[in-house]
């Protein structure tokens, strides 16, 4: 290693060691001796790099400051109006606020007291605001930079908010009030944050309807999802059966400058403080919220069902199901519990994928798919008989064990059991203190928001709607929510009632060559139904809509 590189590495080791100790035991309780021991350097080496322990605090903030230009370029912050850009700068500076509020506050207060570089950043930002016509041109840059600096210092000294977003809200109120006299009409508005939680069918349709040109300049759009792409959940059965690859059921999220993507698992929604808590991540604040977290399996209290069955309700679970099914030895027994659309499509696809398996499909009713016309139900039943899928009608699964299940208390051995016998809203939604129907779905107003909060909408499987949950219903609801938001942003009056969401029909597959469904009043079977479904999927995947 070159001498210069070694010196930089030693400096960074001292900084990392000091920051770690400051976080654990506080700045005042940490000695230089402890820092040098943690960094494995001598005191002489320490003082070659830092004249005092206090200077480390300043360096921690200054190093962050020197990374600002790269951050601005990476996230194209230069495109934002003045106030949102200023908030973004503060947010970047305070990245570690929630990990250690005291350390972060003291580091930046120390830098503001001893260095003028932050002042230069505010002057540059104000000058950009003048050039972009967000700020009146006849202002003294240094004076207003000092105003911003003083508000930053004051909020660092007195604010005790637990989250970075809450801190920023308090700081920006002060800044906005002070700078109001120099802001032009264009730059006057405070940035609002619209957060979409869940990139499912409803969330995707909302993004498509708002981007790129229907989002006001003062609205920041954030999407939170566990995965970096939208998943075509209606096709999980094919992924599980091994007839489609992982990539075939993915659709990229829109790539737009106005869209911020946050990846993480939502743990809790705090409506009181308008925060979305993520597992292992910083909370995300919101002004407007759209909840589209989807559904998960409902086990109806059947003992062992949640432990000993496979699922196709999420991408992660479907991958595990696919691995288990495709690793089964020849002549294995597979039990599919639930003969709704998912169970039927999974059973038929698995039959085409693995003709060596013995497949049982457990149906609670007398007739398979009773929601369809009788001739469609008979068509599906006959397909299963011809293809050696055993449909067990009037079933009642009372218990599930590792090596089988009990139907009416009769044990039936199984090498793999897939549960498709009902769904319920995501647990985060079930835990919300809001009014729900008897299926735990959230009751909404005519405009799809909570009755007591017009800024919180629910889309998709978690919403209580007149129709059974479906991708098509979520998309229709998403379109209406997008139209409501646009009217509200423009100050237009909302209609008393929205038109009913029109569903075009339902299509299901029986393997790759046969299908069934209803389009309007017309019942379809065979190759035509399957071709129609393939066409609908192709159009959706290529963002042309249906």
Automatic annotation (TrEMBL):
DNA-binding span(s): 31-50
Residue span(s) of domain HTH tetR-type: 8-68
Swiss-Prot/TrEMBL cofactor(s): FAD
One of the GO BP terms on file: aerobic electron transport chain
GO molecular function: DNA binding; NAD(P)H dehydrogenase (quinone) activity
InterPro entries the UniProt entry points to: DNA-bd_HTH_TetR-type_CS, FAD/NAD-bd_sf, FAD/NAD-binding_dom, Homeodomain-like_sf, HTH_TetR, NADH-Q_oxidoreductase, Tet_transcr_reg_TetR-rel_C_sf
Keywords in alphabetical order: DNA-binding, FAD, Flavoprotein, Oxidoreductase
Family the UniProt entry places it in: Belongs to the NADH dehydrogenase family.
Protein's UniProt name: NADH dehydrogenase
């Amino acid at each position: 290693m070159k001498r210069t590189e070694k010196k930089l590495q030693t400096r960074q080791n001292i900084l990392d060691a000091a920051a770690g100790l400051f976080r654990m035991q506080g700045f005042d309780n940490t000695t230089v001796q402890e820092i040098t021991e943690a960094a494995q350097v001598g005191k002489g080496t320490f003082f070659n790099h830092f004249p005092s322990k206090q200077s480390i605090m300043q360096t921690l903030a200054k190093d962050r400051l020197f990374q600002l230009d790269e951050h601005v370029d990476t996230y194209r912050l230069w495109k934002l109006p003045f106030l949102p850009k200023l908030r973004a700068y503060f947010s970047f500076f305070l990245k570690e606020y929630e990990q250690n509020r005291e350390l972060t506050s003291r580091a930046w207060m120390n830098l503001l007291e001893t260095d003028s570089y932050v002042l230069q950043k505010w002057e540059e930002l104000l000058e950009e605001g003048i050039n972009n016509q967000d700020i009146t041109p006849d202002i003294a840059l240094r004076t207003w930079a000092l105003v911003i600096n003083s508000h930053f210092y004051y909020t660092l000294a007195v604010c005790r908010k637990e989250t970075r977003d809450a801190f920023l809200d308090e700081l920006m109120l002060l800044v906005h009030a002070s700078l109001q006299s120099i802001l032009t009409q264009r730059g006057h508005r405070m940035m609002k944050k619209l957060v979409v939680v869940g990139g499912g069918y409803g969330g995707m349709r909302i993004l498509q309807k708002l981007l790129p040109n229907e989002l006001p300049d003062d609205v920041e759009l954030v999407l939170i999802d566990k995965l970096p792409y939208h998943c075509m959940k209606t096709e999980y059965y094919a992924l599980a059966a091994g007839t489609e690859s992982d990539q075939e059921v993915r659709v990229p999220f829109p790539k737009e400058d106005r869209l911020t993507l946050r990846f993480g698992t939502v743990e809790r929604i705090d409506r009181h403080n308008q925060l979305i808590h993520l597992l292992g991540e910083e909370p995300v604040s919101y002004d407007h919220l759209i909840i589209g977290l989807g559904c998960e399996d409902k086990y109806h209290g059947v003992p062992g069902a949640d432990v000993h069955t496979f699922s196709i309700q999420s991408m992660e679970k479907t991958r595990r199901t696919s691995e288990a099914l495709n690793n089964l030895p020849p002549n294995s027994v597979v039990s599919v519990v639930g003969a709704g659309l998912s169970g039927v499509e999974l059973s038929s696809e698995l039959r085409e994928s693995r003709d060596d398996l013995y497949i049982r499909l457990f149906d609670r009713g007398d007739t398979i798919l009773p929601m369809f016309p009788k001739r469609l139900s008979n068509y599906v039943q006959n397909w299963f008989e011809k293809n050696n899928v055993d449909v067990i009608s009037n079933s009642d699964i009372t218990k599930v064990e590792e090596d089988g299940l009990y139907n009416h208390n009769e044990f039936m051995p199984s090498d793999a059991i897939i549960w498709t016998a009902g769904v319920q809203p995501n647990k985060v939604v079930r835990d919300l203190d809001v009014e729900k129907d008897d299926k735990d779905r959230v009751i909404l107003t005519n405009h799809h928001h909570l009755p007591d909060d017009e800024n919180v909408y629910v889309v998709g499987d978690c919403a209580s709607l007149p129709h059974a949950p479906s991708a098509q219903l979520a998309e229709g609801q998403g379109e209406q929510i997008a139209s409501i938001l646009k009217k509200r942003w423009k100050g237009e009056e909302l209609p008393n009632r929205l038109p009913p969401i029109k569903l075009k029909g339902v299509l299901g597959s029986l393997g790759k060559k046969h299908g069934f469904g209803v389009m309007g009043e017309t019942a379809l079977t065979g190759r035509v139904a399957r071709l129609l479904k393939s066409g609908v999927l192709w159009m959706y995947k290529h963002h042309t809509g249906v």
